[in-house]
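Quarterly update from the structural biology core.
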Amino acid sequence: MPAPISYLTDKAKDARYWNAAIETMPRGELDALHLKKLQKLVAYVYEYSPFYRRRFDEVGLKPEDIRTLEDYRRKVPITDKQDFIHLQQENPPYGDTLTLPPEMLAHHVETSGSTGLPLQRPVSPLRKS
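Predicted structure, tokenized:
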């Protein structure tokens, strides 16, 4: 049997970390980085997704209310598969969850529906921030 093909460089094969700066970051700095990314995400979906804006407005949440990781844990409403299936049935194929126009979607995948109805899930192109 032939040896498996590796696409890693010799340097990458010998590296102890994939991203040493983040993987060795002190916990406080890592938490601050997580908070910054979550704040950007919450602001983005609030601005561009009618679904998330509605969910946040229902609980009185504005993006600027997320000042700590605990705020995120306590204040951001939980969503589940049923939320999205309902929206997809109401307004196929994605409901009002998209944060960019459908013509910008580069890839589309669906779940198998092995536990019920299949869930259609768009995969959007990578965005530079």
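Residues 18-78 form one domain.
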